Amino acid sequence: MDTNLIRQQTVYHALRRTAARNPQQAAIRQHDVNWTYAEFHDLCLRVAGGLIERGIQPGDRVAILSRNSNAFAVARFAISAIGAVLVPVNFMLNVQESAYIIEHSGARLLLVGDSEVEKAQQVATQCPELEQLFWLATSGDAPDGLDAFSLLAESAPLATLPAVESQEAAQIIYTSGTESAPKGAVLSHAAVLWQYGSILADAEVCSTDTLLHALPLFHCAQLDCFLGPAIQCGASSVITDDNSPGNLLALLSREKISSFFAPPTVWISLLRHPDFDRADLSALRKGYYGASIMPVEVLKEIQTRLPQLRLWNLYGQTEIAPTATILKPEDQLRKAGSAGRPVLHVETRVVDEDGNDVATGDIGEVVHRSPQLLTAYFRNPEKTAEAFTGDWFHSGDLATLDEEGYLTIVDRKKDMIKTGGENVSGREVEETIYQLPWVAEVAVIGLPHPHWVEAVAAVVVPKGEAHAQASEQAVIDFCKQRLAAFKVPKRILMAQDLPRNPSGKILKRNLRDTHAGVFSSAPE
C-alpha cells in the first residue's frame, strides 16, 4: 500500500477533486468552447497521457509561450498531473529573452500559442536541449513544422498517475526584475496550494463566481490567484486573450461576469472607455487589483459608478506564489494606499538593516515566513541564500506598518528616490498629482542630477479631453502647496501613455532610461 499516493495533493488534484464533486458544473469558456469540469478533467488526463507517451517524465520542464487560451488551462493541469514542471514564458519578451528562460530552465518541450509560432521557431534554434514544439490549440491543423497540441489529447486518459510529492516543484516562474538576467522562482505544489487556501479565505473566491481571466496566464497573479483557486472551489472561468477595454466591457456584460481582476491601469482604461456607462455590469460584484496602489480618486470614482462592487487589493510577489497581504473591501477608503494585512498563511514583518522590527510608522524592509514561499531560485544558490538571510524571506520592498498592522508599501528599494540626502517616496508624490482632475496617470521617478545626485521627476498622462489644462508649471505649483519642498518634482514630463509589463505594472526602469538626460545640464 502506497500511503503517499493516498495522501497525494498536487495542483492537478485541485481539478480532480472538483471534477469528482461537480462534474457537470461549467468550468472553462472561451469563444465556442464550453467545458464542464468532467470534460475539462478528461481532456487534461488525455494530454497528460500524451506527454508521457512523448517521453516527458516527472521533474521535466515543459514551457508555454502563449497568450491566454483554453488550451493553456488544459496544459497547466496536465503538466501537473504527471509531475512535470510548468515554465510559463512572457510572450512580450523578444527571441533572446525567451530563449534565455527556456535554456536556463532546461525545458524539453515548448507549447506554442497561435501568435507566437514564428518567435518559438527562432527560439528553438537557440535552445539545443529543447526537443519538441507543439502548437497550443485544442483543434485544427498545426502550422508547418509543429505538431498539434490536439495530438496529445488523442491518447487514452492517464489511468495511473505518477506519485508526486507535494514538496516537489510544480512550476518555475521567472521574475521580471531589474537585474540583467531574470531569476527562476521554484514553487512547489504545496506552496501553490497554500496560496490557493489564502485566496479562498481572504479574497472570497467561491464556487458561485464567474471569473473573467483577461490578464496573462503566464503571470502568477492571474494563474494562481484566480484560475487555480477558481478550479479548486468549482467556480466558472471565462478566458480571453484580448484585454482591450472594449472587449473586456463586452465580456463583462455578455458573460455576466461576477469577479474580475486587473491592475489599476486596466480599471482606469475601463472607466475612461465610452462604452462604460452603456455596459451592463450589474453582475459584477467582486473586483480585484494589484501590481500598484489604486489612486484614491479612482477608488472614489469606482464606488460611485459601480456601487455594487466590492474591491480587494492584493499585494505580493512571484516568490510567495504570489499573495502576501490583502486590503479588503471595508478598508479601501479607510486605509487607502495600504496593501492590507497578511493573508491566512503568511506572517509578515517590517525590519531594519539588522533584522529588527521598526517602530510603527517607520520605513523598513518587508520580510515573510510562509509555506507559500519559493523553494529556491533555480540554479542560483547565491541569490537563494541572500533572499533568506536571517531565516526570513527578504522581499526587497520598503514599507511601514501602522498601529493596526496594516502594511503600506513605500517603494521597492531600487525605486526610493534619494535627492540631496533626503528620501522621497514616489508613491506619495503620485497620490498628490492624482488629485488634479485632468491627470489620467502618473509615474514619479528619480533621475540623475548634477547637483542633487538624483532629482524627483513625474511623467504625466493627461486625460484625453484635458490637454488644454495640462502644463508642467500647474503640476509643480499644485505640489508645492501640498508637499515639502524636497519632494516637489523638478520636472513634469507629459506623455501619451506609460510603459507597462503584461500584468499592467508601470515599468519605471524604462522611464528612467528614456529620460536619463533630462537634468544633464541643470545647475540645481
TrEMBL record:
Which residue numbers delimit the AMP-binding enzyme C-terminal domain? 428-505
Q: Which UniProt keywords apply?
A: Ligase
Pfam families associated with the record:
AMP-binding (PF00501), AMP-binding_C (PF13193)
Residue limits of the AMP-dependent synthetase/ligase domain?
A: 15-378
Offer an example of a GO molecular function term for this protein. acid-thiol ligase activity
Kindly give the SUPFAM superfamilies that the UniProt entry links to this protein. Answer: Acetyl-CoA synthetase-like
Q: Which InterPro entries match?
A: AMP-bd_C, AMP-bd_C_sf, AMP-binding_CS, AMP-dep_synth/lig_dom, ANL_N_sf, ATP-dep_AMP-bd_enzyme
The answer to whether the entry has keyword Transferase is no
Question: Record's family?
Answer: Belongs to the ATP-dependent AMP-binding enzyme family.
Name this polypeptide is given? Acyl-CoA synthetase
Which source organism does the UniProt entry give? Haliea salexigens
Output the lineage of the source organism.
Answer: Bacteria, Pseudomonadati, Pseudomonadota, Gammaproteobacteria, Cellvibrionales
